[in-house]
Model the fold of this input.
Amino acid sequence: MQELEGFKFSNPFADLPEDLFHKQNWTPFDNPKLIHFNEELAELLGFPKDLNAEDLVPFINGNKAFKHSVPLSMAYAGHQFGSWVPQLGDGRGILLGQIQTEDGLMDLHIKGAGKTPYSRFGDGRAVLRSTIREYLCSEAMHHLGIPSSRSLIMIGSDEPVFRETTEFGAMMVRVAKTHIRFGHFEYLMHNKKSELIPILLNHVIENYFPELRASKAGYTDLFEKIVSSTARLIAKWQAFGFAHGVMNTDNMSILGETFDFGPFGFLDDYNPGFICNHSDHSGRYAFNNQPSIGLWNCHALAAALKDHIEIERTKEIINSYEGFFYDELTAIFRRKLGLLVEQADDLKLIEEFLSWMQKNKKDYTLTFRNLAKEQDSLFEDDEGKSWHEKYQHRLSFEKTSSEDRSKMMTRANPKFVLRNYLAQEAIQDAEKSDFTKLKDLLKVLKNPYEENSEFDDFANAPPEWGKKLEISCSS
Ligand code: AMP
Ligand code: MG
Done:
């Protein structure tokens, strides 16, 4: 216990000017109960090896304090669905502290922690349903190989929280390299605190890009890193069929990690116009709009940084977004198709495959997975057969054996993704205090490329009821 209390937090963010946050404690639940603890991640963060997760609960619920943590809620702003919102901030989150690890600095953030000065009209809480969705998805993304925040621990409560119906409150600890968002810089720029922008930029360089410390144009170099990591992240989302749902600038990490999971969804059938967020009436954040919204968000960031970065180079960087995106996308799709040789027409081959999948309402994940195995039975119609012939011809330029290729494709095409209906089943059980499905799902999603035939059911396309789930922003 002593060890836990003295756990080594360092808090460089808390040393920044106080305009950026509000130091505060948070609001505990009366009867917190442990739902899940991610031992593997805890070990990476340096928590004691023999830690009993129950001992950690009072520290997360807020009944006990870590001696070295400086808890705070962050101030930021952002563009929500394209409209400017001057004041957002952690309305239900607390940055508990930061930890220096082998992989660099890690933020520990409590989501669902109660009211803060930035809660506006909200109650500061998160419901069990949305907490489970985030907890599962951030781990699923990480193990797919997509940069993402992660989940350390989840606790539930009997505290009623009012949404469309009465639900129960929960908290989770999210671990991310940073919680600095595009919206942090927009906040400073639009709220006439521009003099703080270089301070925050220096903080980012100091802690995350030490190689830029000596650069003459460090802020512009940093902007380029942000643009390229954003473009590459979104290429990964597209390649794995992930729709984020709320790509507001306040949900964009400056380190290109997926975070702030709300009404996200993985594609079942390949439907590029898929809108996962029921509240997104115009389809601004539809699956196939994500790449251009990523660019839109980079423009918003450039506008916030305009007095600190070189304008001509900024224009060039913005123009490179598409190149960063397509380089990454093509590289991933080549692996998905088992191609090691690079040919100019590869993207066209991929596009034709996708178009065939769309017309035939093929399951995105399963179709790619099956391509690594039973190809002939996949293509029954003329268009499919003709694409298959082209693909076979293309493969004749490869030097790998078909066995090696099949292995490589199995490692590039997951069998398991967090389909909405699976999350929904885990939630329904958890609401009745049965966490078996949640635990099983976490186990499977940790190894999404393995056969794991014991869990074959989790690879299935959704049943009829699971195709029509409506997920909204209310969480
Ligand atoms: P999100 O859509 O989760 O990214 O949240 C957008 C903004 O609303 C952020 O400033 C959140 O902190 C805030 N927010 C969301 N839910 C709540 C809530 N239940 N109570 C207070 N603030 C909230
Ligand atoms: Mg958010």
Q: What stands out?
A: The longest helix spans residues 311-337.
